[in-house]
């Protein structure tokens, strides 16, 4: 009874198409009309599972290498805006930035108010010496005009520097956004690959394992009988 069951044969055409193709590739002497024993079929199933796993490992490796290559091809060098501007900064630009910074501070406003108050007081009330710029304070008007004439181009130079900073920051933000979009796209691509390929592979391997267990169980029961 045991020999009868152990000698049970299966026609290759009755197997799954993928398994048929694998068996025919492994043994060119066989055809779809050939028959194989139970143990031979079990061995072929095990070999087929190993083949699927090996193939999937190779495919995953190639896919990961492809992703790495695409990420490197889209690599973005993030720039430090401050370092880049300091590298190009001249003495005149530094002075212009410092003057513009001081001119836009409360320190300058308070200092300017105190100077104006002192000038007007000293030239209106002769407390310590004879006023040198009596009303209508022509010298004061001239000094203020000169200050405004000098301060305007200095502020413009500082604004040009700020414009350059904004442009570099905008370029940097654009490159970072592009890199983020590329990485998100690649992540979606990898998830799609895992869902489509890996899921199908898991189902196929599970089916093979179930069939193997069934065959082994049958063989074990037959050996007992």
Automatic annotation (TrEMBL):
InterPro entries: DUF1003. Pfam families: DUF1003 (PF06210). It comes from the Bacteria. The chain crosses the membrane at residues 108-129, 135-157. Keywords: Membrane, Transmembrane, Transmembrane helix. Signal peptide: none annotated. This is DUF1003 domain-containing protein.
């Amino acid at each position: 009874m045991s020999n009868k069951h152990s000698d049970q044969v299966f026609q290759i055409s009755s197997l799954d198409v993928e398994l048929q193709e694998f068996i025919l590739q492994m043994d060119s002497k066989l055809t779809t009309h050939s028959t194989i024993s139970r143990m031979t079929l079990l061995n072929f199933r095990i070999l087929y599972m190993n083949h699927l796993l090996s193939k999937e490992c190779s495919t995953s490796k190639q896919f990961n290498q492809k992703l790495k290559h695409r990420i490197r091809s889209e690599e973005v060098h993030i720039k430090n805006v401050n370092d880049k501007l300091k590298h190009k900064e001249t003495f005149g630009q530094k002075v212009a930035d410092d003057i513009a910074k001081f001119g836009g501070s409360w320190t300058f406003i308070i200092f300017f108010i105190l100077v104006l108050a002192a000038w007007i007081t000293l030239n209106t009330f002769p407390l310590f010496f004879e006023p040198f710029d009596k009303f209508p304070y022509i010298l004061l008007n001239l000094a203020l005009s000169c200050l405004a004439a000098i301060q305007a181009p200095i502020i413009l130079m500082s604004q040009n520097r700020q414009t350059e900073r904004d442009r570099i920051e905008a370029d940097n933000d654009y490159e970072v956004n592009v890199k983020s979009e590329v990485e998100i796209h690649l992540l979606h691509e990898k998830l799609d690959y895992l869902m489509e390929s890996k899921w199908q592979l898991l189902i196929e391997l599970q089916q093979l394992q179930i069939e193997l267990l069934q065959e082994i169980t049958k063989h074990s029961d037959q050996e007992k009988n």
